[in-house]
Design brief:
The protein is an alpha+beta fold and 146 residues long. The protein has two domains: 76 residues, Nuclear Transport Factor 2, Chain: A, CATH 3.10.450; 62 residues, Nuclear Transport Factor 2, Chain: A (Roll), CATH 3.10.450. It is built from three helices and eight strands. The protein has an eight-stranded antiparallel sheet with strand order 1-2-3-4-5-6-7-8. A hairpin with a 5-residue loop joins strand 3 and strand 4. It starts with a helix and ends with a strand.
């Protein structure tokens, strides 16, 4: 059930992201940097968001997003995952804190701060936006309205 829910959530996110930003044509230098950073990336689309150039693409079957600054340097990337693809230490921490929750929008974030995971948890008719680091420590738990 979780996988079906996550798959539908992923499809809706991809559809919404497609229409959310203005498409751009990146300069050739940025395209080369992208190809070196993400060999094998497919279905690449470019847009601009908050002063950054954003590449949305599929890599190894996962929707991914990479952000580049004006000097064509990779700032960070985000990858959509299924819950069961999280590291075991992260899964154990989540299961301990949210034992009967359902999860959506599971994302891995890599940037200068390291690797962290962001997801939405729904438990006991309450919904939370949760961020956890790769060691299994919660860095943000925010109750959100349904």
């Amino acid at each position: 059930m979780k996988k079906i829910f996550l798959t539908l959530s992923l499809m809706m996110t991809v559809t919404a992201a497609t229409f959310a930003h203005v498409a751009i044509d990146p300069d050739p230098e940025l395209t080369e940097v992208f190809k070196k950073e993400f060999p094998g990336a497919q279905v690449v689309s470019w847009s601009e968001q908050g002063g950054f150039q954003k590449a949305t693409f599929i890599l190894a079957g996962h929707r991914s997003i990479a952000y580049f600054d004006q000097q064509n340097e990779l700032i960070g990337c985000i990858r959509d995952l299924f819950f069961d693809q999280l590291p075991i230490v992260v899964m154990k921490a989540i299961d301990k804190r949210f034992p009967s929750a359902s999860f959506a929008e599971v994302r891995e974030i890599n940037n200068a701060d390291g690797t962290s995971y962001l997801f939405t948890a729904e438990q006991n008719h309450k919904k939370y936006k949760v961020k956890i680091n790769s060691e299994g420590s919660f860095t943000e738990i925010e109750k959100i309205k349904k």
